[in-house]
Amino acid sequence: MPASRTIFFISANTAITAETLGQSLLVHFEHIDFDQVTIPFVDTLEKANEAAAQINADARMKALSPIVFSTIVNPDIRQVIMKSEGVVFDLFDAFMSRLEDELHMRSFSDTGRQHGLLEDNMYNIRIDAVNYALSNDDGISTKDYDKADVIIVGVSRTGKTPTCLYLGLQFGIYAANYPLTEEDLYIEYKKIPGVLQPHRERLFGLTINPERLQKIRSERMPNSRYSSLVQCQRELAMAEFLFVSKNIPFINITTMSVEEIVATVMHRSKLQRRLF
């Protein structure tokens, strides 16, 4: 087993881009333990020097160079990070020069301008989408389902909430979620719950293997009927029957990360992202 490596995600803004791009690469190295450190808002030379010092301290402590994913645009600040003792993957530098050549113009290196053009415009969309997910979580309210881009359905503890929050946070998608309860599955057997009927074209189902669901539920309510394997098997079987019989698209999330779940929902539901 290779030694644990420290991963730094560094940005002049939120570091979401650095994290997303970096983690999409790291996921392919599943047998290595990564200690992940995020340093956002590195927008001055002083902060860059502090980040570089942290990288250097980690390198000396572990006698192993940390890996750094950076999305810093300012060339002076970028150079400070590049000269650190980390192995730096400059995600802007990897693509920017080729893109400038293709577009026949120089890019703006002013992070303030970038923030003004992109982040400020996107901020309200992101916040509105996340607030929508929270307000329409777990069937708390169904009155705004007509505003939903997608409604995630599934039995309890199948990852509906994190899926909706990620859709809102990363893509600005208005995602609600509705839990398929025993009443929905047993009393209204073979029927789409009434509150969902007007929105059936927006439904997307999540399911999971019964053994995995039992483990998740047992962490919340151990030794209960709710967390018993038999109960998990029954609920999942009936939910999946509903999905198949009513042509509701669905996926089994047992081995999927939230990023993979969201990407699949976006693709299969043909959702148009509002955040770029």
What does it look like?
The two termini are 37 Å apart. The model is unreliable at 110-114 (pLDDT under 50). The chain is α/β, with parallel strands linked by helices. 32% of the residues are buried. The longest helix has 25 residues, at 111-135. The protein is built from ten helices and eight strands.
Would you spell out the secondary-structure blueprint of this structure?
Blueprint: E1 5-10, H1 16-26, E2 34-39, H2 45-62, E3 67-70, H3 75-82, E4 87-90, H4 93-103, H5 111-135, E5 150-154, H6 160-171, E6 175-179, H7 182-187, E7 203-207, H8 210-220, H9 229-245, E8 250-252, H10 258-268
Distance between the termini: 37 Å
Name of the level-1 CATH class of the largest domain: Alpha Beta
Compute the number of helices. Answer: 10
Rg, alpha carbons = 23 Å
Describe the global form. elongated
Which percent bin holds the helix content?
40-55%
Low-confidence stretches: 110-114
Helix/strand/pairing category: alpha/beta
List the secondary-structure elements in sequence, H or E.
Answer: EHEHEHEHHEHEHEHHEH
Q: CATH topology of the largest domain, which one?
A: Rossmann fold
Question: What is the total domain count?
Answer: 2
Strand content range: 5-15%
Strand elements, count: 8
* Biggest sheet strand line-up: 2-1-3-4
Q: Mean pLDDT score, rounded? A: 90
What CATH architecture of the largest domain do you see? 3-Layer(aba) Sandwich
Largest sheet: 4 strands, parallel
Question: Which key phrases capture this entry?
Answer:
Rossmann fold, 276 residues, alpha/beta, 14% strand, 47% helix
